[in-house]
Description:
Elements: E1 5-9, H1 16-26, E2 32-36, H2 43-52, H3 60-72, H4 75-83, E3 87-91, H5 94-101, H6 108-117, E4 125-130, H7 133-143, H8 153-169, E5 176-180, H9 185-201
Parallel strand pairs: 1-3, 1-4, 2-3, 4-5
Helix pairs in contact: 1-9, 2-3, 3-5, 5-6, 5-8
Amino acid sequence: MRGKLICLEGIDGSGKETQLKLVLKFLKGRRVRVYKYPDVKSMLGRIIGDFLRKKVELTPLSQFFIYMLDIAKDQGEIERKLESGEIVVLSRYMYSTIAYQCSKGVPFEKGVEMIESMNFAKPDLVVLLDVLPEVAMERKSRQKEMDRHEEDAELLRKVRENYLTLYDMNFLSKKWVKVEAEVKPQEVFEIVKDFIAQLLKE
């Protein structure tokens, strides 16, 4: 039986890393593979890291392609994992590429069109962790020095709007769910867990 592709999305500070840990604990004992984007171990991921830390500058279109290619490089492997029956969990996916880079000058419709043309594997479930930018920034300020995305409230507002548009479109997924993620992590997870458990029964 084909595996399931699950994606966690949301603006910086929405709680993806915390939910990922809880999801993996819930899935313990099953065959699971995780992919996080940007992939800090890849050449493209290192370029993205330098950009986020303001060590290099990239045009919005260059950003779009670098982020997209960082995801595209794993598509063959992801497809093989799914075909072998594994559960694949993604922390960010091409939705982030649209949400972020189309907040900076790349037209939203053009970004959607480019991603659609790439034939990415479609998630069985996209979990959008929705928080207000102010809440997300307050969380990030407690954790570490913020990168250029995390410190930009106006950008995060636009990114959230793009995510909500993708959610309304049910863009390139069998199912999107929006989870209010401003409550305690365990409360968020109880909702996320129910959707995943339901998916695994299908």
